[in-house]
Structures are given as structure tokens and as C-alpha cells.
């Protein structure tokens, strides 16, 4: 690791730390109230889920509409384990269980469905998420449509912020590594990738399962943060909300996902005062963004600190500027 | 006699009622340069697809030399055959368009390099070492083909001739034993075709591999091929040296039509 890498890593790390401190101080001096903190935590949860989905939709090019299904698995696994095992240990075990179950189900669902393309895959994953929701709605253990209440609150905004940063690091590093490049190759040209010895099914499944793991993590955090879960929270619209984040941000752009999740979260909060007009205004803004920038706010580019801070431009460090 | 590394036995494939490749027997030896010619629709690309694993044959066998013997690879996927040393280019260029030239080559090296998932996720020093090594190898390959100065260009922004060239470089990055070139000169101007002719010879000599080439440009085929196979209506019409093929009555008839004087 040479000096440039260290300098570069440190500047991203300090940006993440600055965000943390900013929220912390703002909360201390009373600039952000309880409501603001809730918004921040939900934004963080959305970031985790959306980064996972962006890996599937943006990087591997598999159009999945089933993300809410995996979030539901994470949420319910956490809630159910916490009923049995009390305390923070129960929460950690629950999250771990959710992630494992979600990964296994993603593997089982992914292997047959990832042979499908485009619209067909979207419908298959949508069907999968509906199955999960209906199963949860009809099981006794999950308490049917009423859902589970009184889940112990272990998740603070700090406990969302840190996993969100870690998720971002893992996803970005994954995309810029050998397996990440292989996944992009499969997206760009499956036949060519296969002719070079890349096992296309394997890499599609890797992306799909990894996305599901992050979805489960987001669902798990959400369950303990909101303290109640119900099947309707994980319906089709939840998948769409996450999808909107990555489409607006720019499909394949991780920094776009983060920025958009924050922007939409803030926007949503600001629109609370508009009552039932809220969703109309929200929708109009989404339409406007899509008309002005159909490729999303960031396109497939990433934010580059290198460009801003070190004025290095594209040069040899092409690992940070993904030109569209 | 050099080792035979590719052989087919009565290879056939049918699509519905059409027999696109019909009982073809060909073979290729180590370091041999073979041309595959025939009128449009003769089944040349279909034969390539059978040899590289895109299609599996209705009848017959594809045999590849695996180091000890000629093994049947009928059931092996293209990816598996690639790992056995089969590489190819495509009639309609298939690059990873959103990636740079350098990345296109690095992706091809994937299968030959160990993926260190953990070190790449957490950016351990060994990750940077591996990346640097991979990049250097890719750059070395690009420099052999005078493409080093475009290494950071997106593949989609390359001029046509260079895109074709990059496809060949990318195929070579998998360190193949046998390289299939599907109409590498298609759409090229005479200058580019002349460069390509030199390039193909250079690849064969420097990388010591078998090359099988589909091409309609007869100057190119006759200049580089040591041996030719001629396909017509999915059947093998003739085989031999370029000179023999040029004088073969059947081949002349297939290309020019019946003489009805």
C-alpha cells in the first residue's frame, strides 16, 4: 500500500468520521430532535438495503424486484430470535440468523431464476417476495398480518451509521476487485465473459446472494429500531422504494445511492407537513429528475475525492473515476 | 508429426429441420494455423460455436487434448473449455464496453489468477500487490500489440480496428492453447487488414498456439493459413494447402457457381 492509497483512504475515513461527529454534535446541542434522529437512522437503513440492491441491479445487471422479501427475512428472524434470547446477544444472534437464512434462500431462489433475463427475472423475484410476505402473513409464529410488537430497541442511529459505512466500504471494494470485475463483465457481455472462462451463473449468484445479505441486515436493523414489524412493511412498495433510490442515484453508482438515499429521506421529512399531498409532490419530483437526468443523478460515475482534494484527475488512478 | 490438440468426429448439429453442420471431421495440430472458409451460411460460425461449447452437438464428438490424451468435451460449457485452453473472438465484436482497455484484458486474466476475496474486501496490502501484478501483466500484453497508449480508453470509444485487436489481446490474456478467430478482418479497410495479417502471424510465432480462422478475405486467408478447410451446406467440401484449395474444382464451383456453357 503506497502513500497515495493511505492518503486517499484516510480522507474518505475522515469524511465518514466528520458525518458521524456532525450528527453527534447536532444532537447534543439540540439541533436535531428525536424526529430528525429517526430520519437519519432510516436513511442509514435504506442506504444499506439500496447498496445491496445496486450490487444486484447496477453491477450485475439483474433486475430484481424482490429486495423487500430479503429484508422481511432479516427483520422476522431478528424479532423471532429476540423473543427467545433476550438482550443484545439476542439481537446479534437474530441479525446473524437473518443474514444466514436470507443468504441460503437467495441461493435457492437465485440458481434457477438468474437464468432468466430482464422482465422475466423481475417478475420471478417479485413473485418470490410475495411468497415470503404471504408465508409470514399466514404463519402462527410470525403473528400473521398483525406482525410482532415490542421488539427490544438496541439500534440507535450510531448502530446504523457504522454498519452503513462498513457496507459502503465492502460494496465499493468488492466492485473494484477481481470478482467485481467478473460480475461487470457478465453484465456487459455474458457470451464474451463465458468465452473467457468466467462462470457466469456463479458470479450472478454471488451478486444476488450478497445483495440479499445486506437486505437482511437492513431489515434486521429496522426491526429493532422501529420496534415493530408487520408483513405490510415488506410489500411490493418497499422493493420499489429501494429501487427508486438506486435509479435516481444512477444505476451502478454507489455514491449516487448514498446521496440519493439521504436526499429522498430529507425530502420525505420536509414533505410531512403537506399531508396527503406529500406523495404527489414526491412523485412529481421523481418524474422531474427522471426527465432531466434519465441516467440518474450520478449516471454510473462515482464521487471522487481524488479529483477534489488531490487534483489528480483520471490519470492512472482509474479505480476512482468510473467514466460513464 | 506434432501433437493433435483438436479433433472432431462426425460432428453434426440440427436446428429443427436444418442440419447446419453435417458430419464434419477436422483436426488441428499444435502451433498450426488453419483457415476455415466457405460461402455465407455454410455453417462456419456454427462449427466454431460447437468447438467452443456455445452449442452441444446433435451427433458426433469434439475432442480436445488435455495434456495426456484427446478427451471428449461435448458436455463442457464454454467457460470450462476456456479453462482447458480454448479462446475465441467474435464475428460481431463483443467487448466489455463500459470498461477500459486495461480492464478488458484484466478481466480475461480472472480465470488464471486466484481471487483473494478477503484481502480485496478489506484492501489488505496483498490486494494492491496482486492488482499491481495483474496490471503489469496486462500492460505487457498490450504493449506487444501497440495498445499501451490507449489502456485507459473505454473499450467502446476505440476505433473499429483497435476494437478487433483488443478482442484478440483479450483472448490471448487467457493463455490459450488454441485460438478461434471469427472473421477478424470483417469491416476492416485494406491497411487494417494488412496490419491484421501481420498480427496473426506474430501471435502464432510469439505465443506458439494453434489458430483457426474464419475469413472471407481470401488474400488474408491464403497468406496466413498453412492448411484450409472448406465448408459448404454444413459439409466439409475440401481440405488442403492454400494452393491445393485454389485449384480444387469443387471449391471453385462452390464459390463461382456451376459452369453451364
Automatic annotation (TrEMBL), chain A:
Ranges that cross the membrane: 12-29, 35-56, 63-82, 88-108, 120-139, 151-175, 205-225, 240-267, 279-298
Coiled coil: none
Pfam family membership, one: BPD_transp_2
GO cellular component: plasma membrane
UniProt KW tRNA-binding keyword: no
Membrane topology: Multi-pass membrane protein
Protein name: Branched-chain amino acid ABC transporter permease
Native source organism of the sequence: Leuconostoc mesenteroides
UniProtKB/TrEMBL annotation, chain B:
Presence of keyword Metal-binding: no
Name of the featured protein: ATP-binding cassette domain-containing protein
UniProt cross-references to SUPFAM superfamilies, sorted A to Z: P-loop containing nucleoside triphosphate hydrolases (SSF52540)
GO MF entries: ATP binding; ATP hydrolysis activity; L-isoleucine transmembrane transporter activity; L-phenylalanine transmembrane transporter activity; L-valine transmembrane transporter activity
UniProt-listed InterPro entries: AAA+_ATPase, ABC_AA/LPS_Transport, ABC_transporter-like_ATP-bd, BCA_ABC_TP_C, P-loop_NTPase
Gene Ontology terms: cellular component: plasma membrane
Source superkingdom: Bacteria
Record key words, sorted: ATP-binding, Nucleotide-binding, Transport
PANTHER family listed in its UniProt record: AMINO ACID ABC TRANSPORTER ATP-BINDING PROTEIN, CONSERVED COMPONENT OF ABC TRANSPORTER FOR NATURAL AMINO ACIDS-RELATED
Signal peptide: none
